[in-house]
Amino acid sequence: MQCATAAQPAELSAEYTPVGPASWLDRAGILTSALCAVHCLSSALAMGLLTAMGAAGLVAPIVEQVFLGLAVLFGLGSLLPATRTHRSPSPLLWFSAGLVALLGLRPLTGGGLEEALVVAVGATAVIRAHWRNTRLLARRA
Question: Is the dihedral of CA 120, 123, 53, 108 positive or negative?
Answer without folding.
Answer: negative
